[in-house]
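ZP: hey, is the nicotinamide-adenine-dinucleotide complex queued? I don't see it on the tracker
AM: it wasn't, my bad. submitting now with these inputs:
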Amino acid sequence: MNNLEDIIENQRTFFKSQQTKNIAHRLKLLKALKLEIESQEQAILDALKKDLKKSEFESYISEVGLVLSELNLVLKNLKKWGKPKRIKSSLLTFPSKDYIYKAPYGNTLIIAPWNYPFLLAMEPLIMAISAGNTVVLKPSELTKHTSKIITKIVEAVFSKSHAISIEGGVDLSTKLLKRKWDFIFFTGSTEVGKIVAKAAASFLTPVVLELGGKSPCIIDDTVDLKLIARRLVWGKLLNGGQTCIAPDYLIVKSIIKEKLIEVLKTEITKRYSDHPEKSPDFPRIINKNNTQRLSMLLEGANIIFGGDINIDNCYISPTLVDEPRLDSPIMQEEIFGPILPILSYDTEKDIERIISNSDTPLALYVFSKNQMFAENTINTYSFGGGVVNDLLIHFGNHRLPFGGVGSSGMGRYHGKFGFDTFTHEKGIMKRGITTDPSFRYPPYSGKLNLLKKIFKWLG
Ligand code: NAD
């Protein structure tokens, strides 16, 4: 069954057979998936090391651990989530019992990126399956070792007509996007997100786009510099800065900027030594093309720390850039690497000018002890989600929806939000048949005033 058309046709037939709708069956498969991931844990960590030179600690905390905890959550709650939900009836339609039925969309397509290649392929897969869909998953072509292990795991657990991982690059994606799907879940760049949205629109297929952008981090002068330096260096350099919600650049109150730069330099050296290229904990850039792209972003920039580049080894050292111009390349595109521009502000107008230089970010961070300032910042700007006084960790609470807005994406997932995203909610009313007041039936003469009173009364 290698032909794409056959695979898709088989998944269509399988979905129509109703087998994916059996919640006990979904649970059985998800349990098997958990066991398979656990038994392949070392192979997954090894693959991530080969692809991204990630440490096992980082791979576990940001990929394997998150996937397993999402699986545990689904295993615990799926029966409850999948049940029809009784809701309050309306007096207008009395007598009735009203429900929301949870229906899968059907045949889904998931396209994953390379930066957290295991997590960002497996989490949507888990949610799609838990909601009762079939899945064609295309992992990233840039992380060959991880994609291989993903394919192996999916193959070990699911029949091909239920879920399959197909490896390939842009050609494969393009072919897949020409087919009709009932739902598409895409994680990747804003540029490719537009291609996916266009393809989905031609079939009116609902689509979730988990994209990127330039996420700002605002720091006022009330902060504890040592604490925030620790959090900043961790949040920026995790995965070598190749994190969709990494702080792209800092906007720092000008009177503390110099002090902050000094503590950042000390903190980077403390965590990764004077030779980050030798640190087992500092990942590499995904490939030479991206290393080259990053090195070009640094051309003409005022580098105040780091700036060491080895394109052949896909290495860029942790780098600080002082006050880049807003029209310079580094402030025009998502950085997606270990380079941190530092801009300063004096007034809130300065902050606004800097943030409005880019499209809607996926994340926004504010470090401040001034609650009013933090609250005002959250309410003033449009962004996907964020954290006050830390970075990235909103991703780790499955009770928070995760997703972008505007150019950083549409739709959301994580935890129950993920199940809901892959579910069509059918509104179902079950009408009583013992009474049937004649009020709604013609002739209507003399009934309008009473109708108006009823609507007024219902509020
Ligand atoms: P990408 O858009 O280049 O690729 C993502 C996927 O799309 C890959 O599987 C790739 O094969 C496929 N693809 C690439 N070009 C295509 C085309 N022309 N037509 C159809 N499919 C195509 O993104 P990437 O480089 O893998 O990932 C980095 C980007 O993803 C960054 O912008 C980052 O911010 C974003 N991202 C977002 C999230 C999120 O949760 N919002 C998570 C991770 C990464």
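AM: back. The longest strand covers residues 96-104.
ZP: great, adding it to the tracker
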